[in-house]
């Protein structure tokens, strides 16, 4: 097996910095690729938390002026991950969320902040670090989208490039004037085959246009984004580039998400004995101030509260949840109106509806271990990770038939495969309530519910095979460029 060197570029990496599924992928994929002969190092920004965790990292490059202030490139490791860190304090030394202010508004210089990350990625791709010259530069989402662009416009010999879309809704759109400030040719901002995007520029569009290969995080989502609706303005470009576009399902880190060893749950358990799920359910009910009852189906939600995630539809389904004798435990934050409405629903239905606004990794694990079913009613979902964790923990997924949810869950009505959950379409409140009623009936048929749980627990949700698909993609790209 020929070794391959890959530089991954990501704006967040679990367990160091996480706002969403991108971090989980960026943290788990490099470790899984080692078994496939791929040496991956990940470049990320030097946010305060990153700098704290990588104290003592080696300084391998120093710039007196990097995009407007002093900067350094560091090399270090954390939890088995080999990292390059771009330490540019005037761009990254800010509190809280990597992308937005405390008021939830995008940092006004985000274009420059993430162009700086992409610029150094391109430079590493061209040999800036003599000890690690990559065969492939793999850019994740819009924040890394300019890496293929810099490599393209620099000209000359370069590594292969891969652009991965984690969510088409986030495209890194900026005023055209940004192009001049970040060292790209002005012509590139005017070229529809370059950065130009409806009179401005888009970092994601640049990556999709100029990368050698494009991936996204599930086969169904790869088809959906080639439509005008699913492509969100980029469907035509993706149809043109369909020959280099593929969907590779995400996996999860099965060492982190393992009910037999999980330190975050109240009682550990395995597929051979699910008895302790009831004990976790009791602790979860207590945490959310829900009535103590093993006979009431407990629905869990771990989600950003947004239109995309279908959380407005779930609000419409609350009368059905109450009528069916179910309970709801929701952990999430996002749209202020949805937060207010869920908190109001909890106040109006004490003991039945429990809501915690925010995100808590420990509580997320307990919801997986203690919920009877996990709800993911998204209008679109590139892959989704919470339903994969649910399968691993014996929580039965109830999901919409979109994107990776379609690809990872087998509906109870499907034949020829062991069912693992419930899927509904179209993505409406009526269809969701129909699935909730079906799930409630199945829950009270203990043998049927146990079959769903055991089928889920037997599903391979690891990165093992998925990482192999990435390794094959990298090798195929290297071979085609060397041909």
Describe the structure.
With 483 residues, the protein is an alpha/beta fold. It has two domains: 4-251 and 464-482, Rossmann fold; 275-457, Rossmann fold. 39% of the residues lie in helices and 19% in strands. Strands 3-4-5-2-1-6-7-11-12 form a nine-stranded mixed sheet, sandwiched between helices.
Layout of helices and strands:
Blueprint: E1 4-9, H1 21-33, E2 38-45, H2 48-53, E3 58-63, E4 71-78, E5 81-87, H3 89-92, H4 110-125, E6 136-140, H5 146-154, E7 160-165, E8 173-174, H6 177-181, H7 186-190, E9 196-197, E10 200-202, H8 203-210, E11 213-216, H9 219-224, H10 228-231, H11 235-240, E12 245-247, H12 275-287, E13 298-305, H13 311-316, H14 318-323, E14 327-334, H15 336-348, E15 353-357, H16 361-370, E16 373-376, H17 386-393, E17 396-400, H18 403-408, E18 422-424, H19 429-443, H20 446-457, H21 464-482
Parallel strand pairs: 1-2, 1-6, 2-5, 6-7, 7-11, 11-12, 13-14, 13-16, 14-15, 16-17, 17-18
Antiparallel strand pairs: 3-4, 4-5, 8-10, 9-10
CATH class of the largest domain: Alpha Beta
- The rounded distance between the terminal residues' Cα atoms is 18 Å
Tally of helical runs = 21
Tell me which oligomeric state these chains represent. single chain
- Look at the structure and name the CATH superfamily of the largest domain: Glycogen Phosphorylase B
Mean pLDDT: 95
Instruction: Say how many strands there are.
Output: 18
Percent strand:
15-25%
User: Biggest β-sheet: count, sense, barrel?
Assistant: 9 strands, mixed
Q: Enumerate the strands of the largest sheet in spatial order, edge to edge or round the barrel.
A: 3-4-5-2-1-6-7-11-12
Q: What Rg, in angstroms, do the CA atoms define? A: 23 Å
By CATH, the topology of the largest domain is: Rossmann fold
> How many structurally independent domains?
2
Structural class: alpha/beta
Unreliable runs, pLDDT <50, ≥5 residues?
Answer: none
Classify the helix fraction into a percent range.
25-40%
**CATH architecture grouping of the largest domain:** 3-Layer(aba) Sandwich
């Amino acid at each position: 097996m020929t070794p391959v060197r890959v530089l991954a570029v990501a704006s967040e990496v679990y367990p160091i910095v996480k706002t969403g599924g991108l971090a989980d992928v960026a943290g788990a994929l490099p470790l899984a690729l080692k078994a496939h002969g791929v040496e991956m190092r990940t470049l990320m920004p030097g946010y305060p938390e990153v700098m704290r965790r990588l104290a003592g990292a080696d300084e391998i490059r120093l710039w007196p002026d990097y995009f407007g202030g002093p900067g350094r490139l560091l090399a270090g490791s954390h939890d088995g991950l080999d990292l390059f860190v771009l330490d540019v304090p005037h761009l990254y030394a800010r509190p809280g969320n990597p992308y937005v202010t405390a008021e939830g508004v995008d940092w006004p210089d985000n274009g420059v902040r993430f162009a700086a990350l992409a610029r150094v990625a391109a430079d590493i791709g061209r040999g800036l670090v003599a000890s690690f010259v990559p065969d492939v530069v793999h850019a994740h989402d819009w924040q890394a989208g300019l890496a293929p662009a810099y490599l393209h416009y620099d000209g000359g010999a370069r590594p292969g490039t891969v652009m991965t879309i984690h969510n088409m809704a986030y495209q890194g759109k900026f005023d055209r004037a940004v192009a001049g400030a970040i060292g790209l040719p002005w012509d590139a901002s005017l070229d529809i085959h370059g950065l130009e995007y409806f009179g401005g520029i888009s970092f994601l569009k640049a990556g999709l246009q100029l990368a050698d290969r494009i991936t996204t995080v599930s086969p169904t989502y790869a088809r959906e984004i080639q439509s005008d609706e699913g492509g969100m303005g980029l469907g035509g470009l993706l149809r043109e580039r369909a020959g280099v576009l593929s969907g590779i399902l995400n996996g999860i880190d099965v060492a982190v998400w393992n009910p037999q060893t999980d330190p975050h749950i109240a009682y550990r358990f395995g597929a051979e004995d699910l008895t302790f799920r009831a004990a976790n359910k009791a602790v979860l009910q207590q945490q959310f101030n829900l009535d103590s009852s093993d006979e009431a189906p407990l629905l869990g939600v771990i989600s950003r509260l947004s239109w995309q995630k279908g959380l407005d539809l779930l609000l419409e389904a609350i009368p059905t949840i109450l009528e069916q004798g179910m309970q709801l435990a929701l952990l999430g934050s996002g749209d202020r109106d949805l937060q207010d409405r869920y908190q109001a629903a909890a106040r109006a239905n004490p003991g039945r509806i429990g809501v915690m606004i925010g995100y808590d990794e420990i509580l997320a694990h307990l919801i997986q271990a203690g919920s009877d079913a996990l709800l993911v009613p998204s209008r679109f979902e590139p892959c989704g990770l919470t339903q994969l964790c649910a399968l691993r923990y014996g929580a039965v997924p109830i999901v919409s038939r979109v994107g990776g949810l379609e690809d990872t869950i087998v509906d109870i009505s499907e034949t020829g495969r062991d069912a693992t959950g419930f899927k509904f379409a179209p993505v409406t409140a009526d269809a969701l309530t129909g699935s909730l009623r079906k799930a409630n009936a199945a829950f009270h048929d203990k043998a049927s519910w146990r079959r769903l749980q055991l089928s889920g627990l037997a599903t391979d949700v690891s990165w093992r095979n998925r990482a192999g698909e990435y390794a094959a993609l990298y090798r195929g790209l290297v071979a085609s460029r060397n041909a």
